[in-house]
Design goal:
alpha+beta, Methane Monooxygenase Hydroxylase, Chain G, domain 1, 54% helix, rod-shaped, disordered N terminus, cell membrane, membrane
Length: 359
């Protein structure tokens, strides 16, 4: 993704007065990180959310970024009160299982993004799970970003480190953080679709391999995993488009173009996911057609062998009735003649069925 070279110079410089000493606290189980950013640089020290927002508002510059991981209602309440988060959005952030969406509450944006992670398997035809999903909720205000994560794979530590190394991007404030998170999530979508494409290629090769044992159940499982990816990808298009089109003044004009870039990448992912679903449907139909063809072949073989076996069965059945006046019962060559006739007829039928590819 492109960097944001044009995002700098939009904030004032750090005032020369000394930084007030923050309260030093050990991070809790649900508070992953809390940082104060002024003029694109992170202020040193550990901060509570209350001290962090007080410092920013006292300066009149900068913003707070606090990251939470699966907090409960009691744990998030203090953060919600400090930043004035809407109770409905807070409820969604705690309970999760939301569709990707974008909502505006007064001067705060609430955005939900679904994260996905590819699960490596030895072979696609033996996999029980391919995609694992999680969620990231983002509260965006004029001077704060609150991220709430659900799932163990949806960490934002790498995003934070990358942003802290590029002060030009952070000078644009909370909007740059939201862009970087969306960019990170969509990049993961691209990585997952690359891996799924490889799995589908392997599955396609297995389906059309002679004497293949791939079942339709396994392909349905892969379709279900692709459907989970589709539920994460498709609904995100509308929120990204709204951010790119000036849905809120919290996203400056110079940042909107970068959301358009993320939307372009999301469109690419969406098209690939749709193609995956169509291809898997084709593979299911191919497997079912192979099963039907195999069943027809088996029925032809059974019918051919039944026809062959019916000849000796009929002859032996006739001569097993033990009547006194039956033709050729006392003829010296009767038995070898009957056996010869049976073998001749059976071999003739066998050659006919082989020529017609029934056997």
């Amino acid at each position: 993704m492109p960097s944001l070279p044009s995002l700098g110079g939009l904030r004032g410089r750090v005032p020369e007065r000394p930084v007030s000493a923050p309260v030093t606290l050990s991070p809790s189980a649900y508070v992953v990180d809390c940082g104060v950013y002024v003029d694109g640089a992170r202020l040193p020290g550990l901060w509570t959310h209350t001290d962090a927002v007080e410092e920013v508002r006292k300066r009149g510059d900068g913003f707070v970024w606090i990251g939470l991981h699966e907090p409960d209602e009691e744990q998030i309440q203090g953060v919600a009160d400090t930043f004035g988060l809407h109770e409905l959005a807070v409820e969604d952030a705690v309970h999760a299982h939301q569709r990707p969406k974008l909502e505006r509450y007064d001067n705060t944006l609430f955005m939900v993004l679904k994260t996905v992670r590819y699960i490596q398997n030895a072979s696609p035809d033996t996999a029980n799970e391919i995609v694992e999903s999680g969620e990231i909720m983002v509260f965006l205000g004029r001077d704060f970003v609150v991220t709430v994560r659900h799932g163990n794979h949806s960490g934002l530590a790498a995003v934070r480190r990358e942003l802290e190394e590029e002060t030009e991007r952070l000078r644009s404030g909370p909007a740059a953080v939201l862009y970087s998170i969306a960019d990170h999530v969509v990049d993961n979508y691209l990585d997952v679709t690359d891996n799924i494409e490889d799995d589908i290629d392997q599955m396609e090769a297995l389906v059309f391999q002679p004497r293949s044992r791939v079942s339709a159940d396994q392909i349905y499982l892969m379709k279900r995993e692709v459907l989970e990816l589709r539920r994460a990808v498709m609904p995100l298009a509308v929120p990204l488009r709204r951010l790119a089109e000036g849905y809120t003044p919290l996203i400056p004009e110079h940042v909107r173009s970068y959301f358009r870039d993320v939307d372009d990448h999301l469109t690419e992912v969406s098209e690939r996911v749709i193609n995956f679903d169509e291809l898997l449907t084709t593979l299911v139909n191919a497997v079912l057609a192979k099963i039907t063809l195999q069943q027809n072949s088996d029925m032809r073989k059974l019918a051919a062998w039944v026809a062959i076996i019916s000849v000796p069965t009929m002859v032996v059945g006739v001569y097993g009735m033990n009547f006194d006046h039956m033709p050729e019962t006392h003829w010296r060559y009767g038995y070898p003649m009957v056996i010869s006739v049976i073998i001749t007829v059976c071999l003739t039928l066998y050659r006919i069925f082989r020529r017609n590819r029934w056997l």
